[in-house]
């Protein structure tokens, strides 16, 4: 049985924590791309593009080439969309993890350690959209260590932290492409309370964010 321990973040974890976050987000780009391609509107658009290009150039090979270029362009757009989120995060709270999560009593950041390596992370801060709730953030577990109970242990750490400080709930945000994460959170008792597209580009790419909530009994914050 794999062994690990959850402990508070230390400065020497900085590079490993950021690298784990980056890999965890970028791995969802292919899933987002496949989701976009499965859309009936996307498939209809590609068909119309093929027919129009073939009619204009009189060659089905060139029509296929036009569709291929469109697919490549779409992949680059999806990749840029995901990368922009990573860059934004690295420039905000993940730029200085200690300052963002360890300088106030109602914020914290933990890592999961296995074999002397950081294999998971999670953070907690007061939620911006609900003063009675705490926000679970930056949950990530390396691919090689999934299925070992690390994510559940990290969630449990946040729930205990929030309960000890009198918060009434824990909130989090995940996306429609993070299916495994949705199942994990729902299995731990979180319930979906909202779904929305964060931008026009997200709407076009069929990307949505889901808000989840876990109510803590006896919370008074």
Summary keywords:
221 residues, alpha+beta, Aminopeptidase, 8 helices, 48% helix, transmembrane helix, membrane, Acyl_CoA_acyltransferase, N-acetyltransferase activity
Give an account of the 3D structure.
With 221 residues, the chain is α+β, with helices and mostly antiparallel strands. The protein has one domain (1-220): Gcn5-related N-acetyltransferase (GNAT) (Aminopeptidase), CATH 3.40.630.30. It is 48% helix and 23% strand. The chain contains 8 helices and 7 strands, in the order E-H-H-H-H-H-E-E-E-H-E-H-E-H-E. It has a 7-stranded mixed β-sheet. Helix 6 (150-164) links the parallel strand 4 (133-141) and strand 5. Helix 1 packs antiparallel against helix 4, helix 2 (29-38) packs across helix 4 (60-90) and helix 3 (40-57) packs across helix 4 (60-90). The longest helix is centred in the middle third of the chain and has 31 residues, at 60-90. The chain is elongated, with a radius of gyration of 21 Å. Residues 67-217 form the N-acetyltransferase domain. One of its GO terms (molecular function) is N-acetyltransferase activity. The chain crosses the membrane at residues 44-76.
What is the element layout, followed by pairings?
Layout: E1 5-8, H1 14-26, H2 29-38, H3 40-57, H4 60-90, H5 97-101, E2 108-114, E3 117-126, E4 133-141, H6 150-164, E5 169-175, H7 179-187, E6 191-196, H8 200-204, E7 209-215
Parallel strand pairs: 4-5
Antiparallel strand pairs: 1-2, 2-3, 3-4, 5-7, 6-7
Helix pairs in contact: 1-4, 2-4, 3-4
């Amino acid at each position: 049985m794999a062994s690990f321990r959850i402990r508070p973040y230390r400065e020497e974890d900085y590079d490993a924590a950021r690298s784990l976050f980056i890999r965890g987000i970028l791995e969802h780009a292919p899933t987002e791309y496949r989701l976009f391609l499965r859309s009936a509107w996307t498939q209809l658009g590609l068909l119309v593009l093929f027919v129009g290009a073939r009619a204009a150039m009189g060659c089905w090979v060139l029509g296929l080439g036009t569709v291929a270029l469109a697919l490549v362009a779409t992949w680059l757009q999806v990749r840029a969309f995901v990368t922009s989120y990573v860059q934004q995060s690295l420039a905000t709270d993940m730029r200085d993890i200690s300052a963002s999560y360890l300088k106030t009593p109602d914020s914290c950041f933990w890592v999961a350690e296995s074999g002397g390596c950081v294999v998971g992370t999670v953070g907690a801060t007061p939620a911006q959209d609900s003063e009675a709730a705490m926000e679970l953030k930056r949950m990530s577990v390396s691919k090689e260590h999934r299925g070992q109970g690390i994510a559940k242990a990290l969630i449990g750490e946040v729930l205990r932290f929030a309960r000890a400080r009198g918060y009434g709930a824990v909130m989090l945000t995940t996306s429609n492409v993070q299916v495994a994460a949705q199942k994990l959170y729902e299995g731990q008792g979180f319930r979906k309370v909202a779904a929305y597209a964060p931008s026009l580009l997200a709407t076009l790419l069929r990307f949505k964010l889901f808000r989840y909530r876990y109510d803590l009994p006896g919370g008074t914050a």
